[in-house]
């Protein structure tokens, strides 16, 4: 027993001594950059014991290919796991090697969010700053009624890299009339308005009667077609009705079926119409197997990534208010399902966004962090 105690003491001393010499070596690769660790987790959320585990893992090179990041909930659980094969916690170079490339200029676009709302009134500038830090280059702010659409256009006018879509959500379909449609069409005069939406059908909540939803959907599709705009489509528990109306209104500029939660068969039908399909943080939820099944049938050249902020924050931020910086986690989940590199998901989704929403001869602005005084 005495021999074992002495051996443990000597081993601990050697580890601590060696860790000092490793500090400089690890600082470049493992220390946070721009407020984020190599795994993409904000510095302030990393457990205090992480640096010790990183140094300890340097002694175990043969295990480095299957370690997890302790900044994530699943990785943190590995610390308490009884299974030795998942108990080593560092940022694995094989799992997180994509993060440095993001900081080298791979464009990231959140193709659908709502940060113009009051939920961001207190810290909108800080939210935008975090998005820039995460590599986000453009945002599309999507209106849900006339008032929201005006707010989205105002935010896009005031902020480089932010663009707007205008329209009435199916929850507010009862508000659609000739006057509202005319006011929405007036907003199209702003050069940063790229699409009409979000529009569609929601038979899950039924906040508006279904016949009213159908009429509002048709009326807005007709306006979008007349104005030669792509559309942003919301559909939930309304598969057959959505497909029927879309077949009756062929879209010359295509559209974006956002936050897709339908069946693989519906995805294939939408793809056959030439539409793009967007996925949110739902794809990272443990029980969302149906969404992952649909994702598998969507090719990369029809895929868009989005947060739908403030809703549906992806793992590892689930349960919090969502924000555009978290779109990288959505892309990570998609890359895992499709077994492709993260950079490929980001590059292809960015190309798709530009192809769908771009206007002739337009120059895309890049999102910039607000000035310090704006964040105070």
From TrEMBL:
Gene Ontology molecular function: DNA nuclease activity; hydrolase activity, acting on ester bonds; metal ion binding
InterPro entries, alphabetized: DNase_TatD-rel_CS (IPR018228), Metal_Hydrolase (IPR032466), TatD-like (IPR001130), TatD/YcfH-like (IPR015991)
Annotated Pfam families: TatD_DNase
Keywords in alphabetical order: Hydrolase, Metal-binding
Gene3D superfamilies linked: Metal-dependent hydrolases (3.20.20.140)
UniProt keyword Metal-binding present: yes
Superkingdom to which the source organism belongs: Bacteria
One Gene Ontology cellular component annotation held by this UniProt entry: cytosol
Protein family according to the UniProt entry: Belongs to the metallo-dependent hydrolases superfamily. TatD-type hydrolase family.
Protein name: TatD family deoxyribonuclease
Source species taxonomy: Bacteria, Pseudomonadati, Nitrospinota/Tectimicrobiota group, Candidatus Tectimicrobiota
């Amino acid at each position: 027993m005495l021999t074992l105690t002495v051996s443990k003491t000597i081993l601990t001393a050697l580890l601590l001594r060696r860790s000092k010499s490793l500090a400089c070596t690890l600082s470049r690769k493992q220390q946070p950059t721009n407020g984020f660790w190599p795994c993409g987790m904000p510095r302030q959320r990393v457990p205090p014991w992480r640096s010790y585990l990183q140094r300890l893992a340097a002694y175990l090179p043969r295990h480095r290919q299957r370690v997890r990041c302790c900044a994530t909930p699943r990785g943190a659980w590995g610390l308490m796991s009884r299974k030795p094969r998942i108990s080593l916690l560092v940022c694995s170079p094989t799992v997180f090697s994509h993060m440095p490339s993001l900081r080298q200029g791979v464009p990231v676009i959140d193709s659908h969010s709502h940060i113009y709302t009051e939920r961001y009134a207190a810290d909108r500038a800080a939210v935008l700053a975090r998005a820039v830090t995460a590599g986000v280059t453009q945002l599309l702010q999507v209106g849900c009624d006339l008032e929201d659409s005006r707010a989205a256009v105002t935010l896009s006018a005031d902020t480089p890299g932010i663009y707007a879509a205008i329209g009435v959500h199916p929850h507010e379909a009862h508000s659609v009339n000739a006057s509202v449609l005319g006011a929405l069409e007036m907003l199209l005069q702003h050069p940063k308005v790229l699409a009409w939406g979000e529009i569609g059908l929601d038979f899950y909540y039924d906040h508006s009667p279904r016949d009213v939803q159908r009429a509002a959907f048709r009326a807005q599709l007709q306006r979008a077609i007349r104005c030669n705009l792509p559309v942003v489509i919301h559909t939930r528990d309304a598969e057959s009705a959505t497909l029927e109306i879309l077949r009756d209104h062929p879209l010359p500029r295509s559209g974006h079926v956002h936050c897709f939660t339908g069946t693989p068969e519906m995805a294939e039908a939408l793809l056959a119409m030439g539409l793009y399909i967007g996925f949110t943080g739902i794809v990272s939820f443990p029980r969302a197997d149906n969404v992952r099944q649909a994702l598998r049938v969507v090719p990369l050249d029809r895929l868009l990534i989005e947060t739908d902020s403030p809703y549906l924050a992806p793992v590892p931020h689930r349960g919090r208010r969502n924000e555009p910086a978290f779109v990288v986690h959505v892309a990570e989940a998609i890359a895992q399902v499709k077994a492709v590199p993260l950079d490929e998901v980001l590059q292809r989704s960015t190309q798709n966004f530009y192809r769908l929403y771009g206007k002739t001869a337009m120059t895309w602005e890049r999102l910039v962090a607000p000035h310090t005084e704006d964040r105070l």
